[in-house]
Amino acid sequence: MWTVINRGPVRVGLLAAAVAGLLCLGVAGCGGGGDEEGADKALAGTRLCGGDAVSAQAPKALKVITGSSRFGTTAEKSTVARAATDLVEAFPVATGGRDDVCRIYTADGTPDFAVRVTWGLDDGPPTGTPASDFTVLDMGERTLTAANRASVRFACRSDRFPNAANVAHIVVGVERWGMPTEPEGDVEALKDAYATVAHSFSPAMAEELRCERNGGLPARPALDPA
Question: Quick one: which of 42, 55, 118, 182 has the most CB atoms within 10 Å?
Answer without folding.
Answer: 118
